[in-house]
């Protein structure tokens, strides 16, 4: 009798562990798997690449900007010869971002580019903010924003300021040249 109880207990424990493990693709593994793949470019960028006029920022925007620490970028360049691969890679990213752990913050279009901003965390604190942009003519890019005490509602207010911000072009040359 003791043996069967132990067997059932260990069987249940193993089942719980297997069910709780997420073997699905993650954005982090997608970055690692593709950082050196053909048609991809990756870069780790400091937040100083975005130059904001802090005097014109609201207190919420200043707090959101100071909470950002690092930006990880992964981009895929679209060309006439890789449209099937582009579509497959785009679907992989969309599938990853459909996971319920990614909470939608906002979505908008700027010219031919569609942007989705999502985050992982809760209403009070975001562990990671993801900016996904794609254009059928140029390709797609994903930015993982990492920081400390990022607040989703304040990150959303910062988006407007970033749209009109200056960028340190010297740190973005490789990325902008890649999409030409």
If you had to describe this structure to a student in words, what would you say it looks like?
This protein is α+β, with helices and mostly antiparallel strands. About 40% of the residues lie in helices and about 35% in strands. It has helices at about 1-20, 25-35, 60-65, 85-95, 150-165, 170-180; strands at about 40-45, 50, 70-75, 100-110, 115-120, 125-135, 140-150, 165. It has a 6-stranded antiparallel β-sheet, with helices on both faces. The protein starts with a helix and ends with a helix. Mean pLDDT is about 80; it is low at about 10-20.
Total number of beta strands: 8
Q: What portion of residues belong to β-strands?
A: 25-35%
N- to C-terminal separation? 71 Å
Query: What about the largest sheet?
Result: 6 strands, antiparallel
- What would you call the shape? globular
Overall residue-averaged pLDDT value: 79
Structural class: alpha+beta
C-alpha Rg (nearest Å): 20 Å
Q: What share of residues is helical?
A: 40-55%
- Weakly predicted, low-confidence segments: 9-20
Quaternary status? single chain
Question: What would you say about this model in short?
Answer:
By secondary structure, the protein is an alpha+beta fold. It has 6 helices and 8 strands. The chain has helices at 2-20, 27-34, 59-67, 83-97, 152-163, 169-178, and strands at 40-46, 50-51, 68-77, 102-110, 113-121, 126-135, 139-150, 166-167.
